[in-house]
Specification:
It contains 6 helices and 6 strands; from the N terminus they run ααβββαβββααα. With 272 residues, the protein is an alpha/beta fold. α3 links the parallel β3 and β4.
Length: 272
Amino acid sequence: MKDGMLEFSDWPMFDLLMTDKELCREVIEIILDESIADIEYIVTEDDVRPTLTNHGVRLDAFVKTKNEIYDIEMQTTKREDLGRRMRYYQGALDTLTLRKGEGYEELPPCIIIFICMHDPFDEGLPVYTLDVNCLEKPSARIGHGFLWKALSAPAWDKLPEGRLQNLLHYVWTGEAGEDPLTGQLAVAVKKANKNENWRKEKMALLTFEEDMEIQRRIAEKKGQERGQIIGLQMGLEQGLAEGLEQGLAEGREHGLAEGREQGLAEGREHGL
């Protein structure tokens, strides 16, 4: 959010633009560097809850083609659990797409894409492609049918010149440049921001979400600080206890040694 306007990287704007089949298809194709089948439908801002009692996930953009499914997420907040989050999304999507009575072979190929406004794994890469391989023999064909990608927008300049670099540069800076897709995205963002009622409604939701994230971080920090204080107290108590025990032991040993020495001296004095 900049100057009271939503940007492409803000989830309400991202979700809105991803409902455009052509924009969404081109974003996916640039990220994967391959063509995809025509999109049958797109669902945005959708809650997936495998069962009533399970933890749900909110999908930014769930995309279905004839043979594949895609999930595209915009991640603006740094989270340490992204790998496990992607794992949970995968399980939720598999549960959602496999109907009762169908065999596992009916699971469609699935690709989960996270576009991040930070380095998701702190390794300095612009793109992380995550797959399951056999450690003992990487050439073994597992056939699980899924792929995860995490993109780091701040590292756009580490990519070779091309459309993916242009896309991540736009995500990070908001500058469209001369790429046809980023130009279309910039026009769509400007048009959406002109809808004042929609913009204000989504900004309120975004602000609330940001406030909740701030509160989560404060609570997490307080929990860490409290844990550190408790740890220091426990360490101090343990250190005092160990010091006291060691002091008593050394005192007993020193006292016994002095007693023996004094007893021998007195014995010698009395002619023993």
